[in-house]
Amino acid sequence: MKELIVNKEKITIRKAKESDAEVLIEYLNIIGGQSNDLTFGEGEFGRTVEAEREFIKNALEKNNALFIIAEVDGKVVGNLNFSGGPRKRIAHVGEFGVSVLKEYWGNRIGEELIRYLIDWSKNSKIIKKINLRVRTENKRGIGLYKKLGFLEEGVLKRDYLIDGEFYDSLLMGLLID
């Protein structure tokens, strides 16, 4: 668990628990409508509370997966999930997704979630590379990832299809030594 103060509010970053499933589904349904930078839009997340509970349980059982949330006064305001590869040859590398409620954008919550992931990866002795993909138009996200040491590795053409229009993604990676 990690705590920080941002704009006089105490933010707690902690590992998700199975009992968080219902509030996480509510949170994910909200953020899906707040940004086109996610892999899902409003009403598109498509996971039941039970399926989310199982997803969290699986993340807790694996030594190469992490699911964390950021809370303010018990309210989920951000999350990050990371999954390492399912087989021995690729267990050391994984990809993450991160999101923050729009009303909390600009408060370093996303940055702190990613820093938590990086520290966890270094301490895991398993994870040797963190990958991500980000829409090429998301300059703010790309700037944050570069600030944290991620390097550009390539572009996926037509990776997103939003309202009938294609968007490319930038692949980025961070080596963990």
From TrEMBL:
Domain N-acetyltransferase: 11-177
PROSITE patterns with a match to the protein in the record: GNAT (PS51186)
Domain of life: Bacteria
Pfam short name (any one): Acetyltransf_1
An MF annotation (GO) of this entry: acyltransferase activity, transferring groups other than amino-acyl groups
Name of the protein in its database record: GNAT family N-acetyltransferase
Annotated source species: Clostridium thailandense
